[in-house]
Structure prediction request, 294 residues.
Amino acid sequence: TGPRFEPERVHIMTDNLYFLFLDEIYAPNLNDMLKFTKEDIFNKANHLHFGISGAIVAASCLRDLFKRSEKIKNKYYKDITDLIFHYVDILNTKDVYSDLVLDQKKNKSFKTSLSSFIRDLDFKYDYVFVDKNDLIKKYGIFDKNKKLVKIQKIGSNLFPKSPVHDYNLYLLCLKKMIENFYAFLNSKKLLARGIIVAEARGEREDTELRQAFKKIYYNGISSIKPTDLRRQILDLFVVPKKQNYFGTQLADLVLYPTYDVVIPNHNIRNDHFISYNSDLKRKCLDKNSKIIPY
Prediction:
């Protein structure tokens, strides 16, 4: 293991250094689609997804952001050290947040504080989702027994024909996410640089995320030359959950309320305490469709 990465202690070029904090939802592969027949895929609604959210925060704002988040944590959970904001647990009043079931006044106040915090916070964010069923319908290759075996080439050489077991959905999502992050950095009057930070999920997932990043980093994407990309996006760090960065928690807080609204015919909850339409949509980098395949 390398040294502890501490973004809040970065002092170099803080006025023009930005962090893209990532979080993700569901499995970053197509293995959960292998149980379906070709007929199931083409004739039934098996809309399983994978997605990534990314919260962009200026390095110069990190310390203030951390202090404000700690103020909320200390107000409502002062006896719990290293509390992590996890949106789904808060929404469902689970685990450390199970006390909210018995204290509706605290429940309402806590969620209102988080909603106001997110709404007023100075950050941008982005998201990309993959509809696995639609991806396979468009690009899947089946054998003579109608078993899914490969995904055909998708556009550029970044996405060659690949066995379905090896298919890395991080690559599809990161391509769009990094394109938008690069454009955001490029829009600044002074040269801006960025660092991407993701929370560790597991050995396989972390390896696939790093592989996807390196493929983009050294090959470039679309009209962005790899040298230009590396000039502005410096690196990707995968950090342990126990390091408790609020940046990755911020990406978590915006992910599920976005997913539940933007995925067609989804919207299964009416009790979100962070609203995509009221709190998040105006902070989004790119208003175009970000559900793959487009």
